[in-house]
Design a protein that fits this description.
alpha/beta; six-stranded parallel sheet; 22 strands; about 30% helix; potassium transport; Trk system potassium uptake protein TrkA; RCK_N; repeat
Length: about 450
């Protein structure tokens, strides 16, 4: 595909890296020439220096014959105008824009085809808020992803010493939990992926990715690690868009406090939120954390836009007795450095957002893409179409499908029914198939599996 990316920041740069690896024709546009040179040196892509909303710059980037425009600059207005220009002057088929401000997102009809023609809206704050919310709802999980409208969840947990399954092979899971259908999609041991088989033994400290129906998730988690009680007391550092949205979602079911350093923002938050306690001060203040009884906090969420403040406040909160700390980190290089030590969960907003973008870049009927382990792997939800003659998956059992190396089918959703992906399960047209792809170079092969041909050779 010929794709133009506007914005060479964290999201634009990471996306270019993902897509360039998959042999797409990528052009990145930005006003920062130094950043573009850095990307050009690292990746095999074209770069254009200039303002992404200018017609001349878009023409120079090749918008006349581009398949897709992805506008992820830091300015909502530039992203919106770029999509308008691409539609009006160049008839670009697919236009994706990152829009952050809720002032735009809450206006119905604004992004219709006859108004501002944006095909797909991405709101990073909402994506990250949902990501954090799911982690709070599943104490002990490192990542929680939803498929088929939430019927199926993919959960990553770290196996602990003393868990019933540690030291057992995966075949034991089926015997031990005969009433629960689940499938281990992948195991990461010392940062290396293992394709799970029945005789694979789970070791302590393994990162285990498993799929199950939403109702069974807690039961499976309890087999891999000590059951943690539900989080009740939540402290949020940072009252920006993410902090506010998270508090809004949690305040009727949890005890929520927000620490915000801007007095003006504190006033606005206290007016908009119902039950949340809004505190004016610094999240890195030991005195403030002690006064607010941080040792009674179940989870401390550092969600400011400053990585250093997030890391330091998390370390301080943990040292003062917070049971769990969750830290938002923009610099992807920091994420692996800090997660798993004093900091329990580190979240990269870029990786959370990339999944939403990749869903619309994939060929075939792909309805969901989630980036896993900082982009090392992907979980994909694809819809099977056609019949045995026109499709490579329909009318075949999972064992008969020629899956690319490093790819597993974890589950199939048929209507409201969740079917765990055992070898004898037959794929039907209309099934939502959930796949786990460890080798990103195989993504194109997975897409081809779900493309329907006029005739199948």
């Amino acid at each position: 595909m010929k794709i133009i990316i506007l914005g060479a920041g964290q999201v634009g740069g990471t996306l270019a890296e993902h897509l360039a690896r998959e042999e797409n024709d990528i052009t990145v546009v930005d006003t920062d020439g130094a950043r573009l040179r850095e990307l050009h040196t690292k990746l095999d892509i074209r770069t254009v220096t200039g303002a992404g909303s200018y017609p001349m710059v878009l023409r120079q980037a090749g918008c006349e014959d581009a398949d897709m425009l992805i506008a992820v600059t830091n300015t909502d207005e530039v992203n919106m105008i770029a999509c308008q220009v691409a539609h009006t002057l160049f008839r670009t088929p697919t236009k994706i824009a990152r829009v952050r401000s809720t002032a735009y997102l809450t206006r119905k009809g604004l992004f219709a085809h006859e108004a501002i023609p944006i095909d797909v809206l991405i709101s990073p704050e909402q994506v990250v808020t949902d990501h954090v919310r799911r982690l709070i709802e599943h104490p002990g999980a490192l990542q929680v992803l939803e498929f088929a409208g939430g019927l199926v969840q993919l959960v990553a947990v770290k196996a602990f010493y003393g868990g019933p399954l540690v030291g057992q092979d995966l075949a034991f899971l089926a015997k031990h939990m005969p009433n629960v259908e689940t499938r281990v999609a992948a195991i990461y041991r010392r940062n290396r992926p293992i394709i799970p088989r029945g005789d694979t033994v789970i070791e302590a400290d393994d990162e285990v990715f498993f799929l199950a129906a939403r109702r069974d998730i807690r039961a499976v988690m309890s087999e891999l690690r000590r059951v943690e009680r539900d989080f009740r007391r939540v402290v949020i550092a940072g009252g920006g868009n993410i902090g506010e949205r998270l508090a809004e979602h949690l305040e009727h079911s949890h005890q929520v406090k927000i620490i915000e350093h801007s007095l003006e923002r504190c006033t606005a938050l206290s007016e908009r939120l119902d039950r949340t306690v809004v505190l004016h001060g610094s999240a890195t203040s030991k005195r403030l954390l002690e006064e607010e009884n941080i040792e009674e906090c179940d989870i401390f969420c550092a969600l400011t836009n400053d990585d250093e403040v997030n890391i330091m406040s998390s370390l301080l909160a943990k040292r003062l007795g917070a049971k769990k700390v969750l830290t938002l980190i923009n610099n992807a290089a920091y994420v692996d450095l800090v997660q798993g030590g004093e900091i329990d969960i580190a979240i990269s907003p870029q990786q959370a957002t990339i999944g939403s973008l990749l869903t619309h870049v994939r060929r075939g009927d792909i309805v969901n893409v989630h980036s896993l382990r900082r982009g090392a792997a992907e979980a994909i939800e694809a819809i099977a179409h056609g019949d045995k003659q026109s499709s490579k998956v329909v009318g075949r059992t999972i064992a008969e499908i020629n899956l690319p190396e490093g790819t597993t089918i974890g589950a199939i959703v048929r209507g409201k029914e969740v079917i765990i992906g055992h070898g004898d399960v037959m794929v039907e047209s209309g099934d939502h198939v959930i796949l786990f792809v460890i080798d990103k170079r195989r993504i194109r092969d997975v897409e081809r599996l779900f493309q329907v041909g006029l005739t199948f050779f």
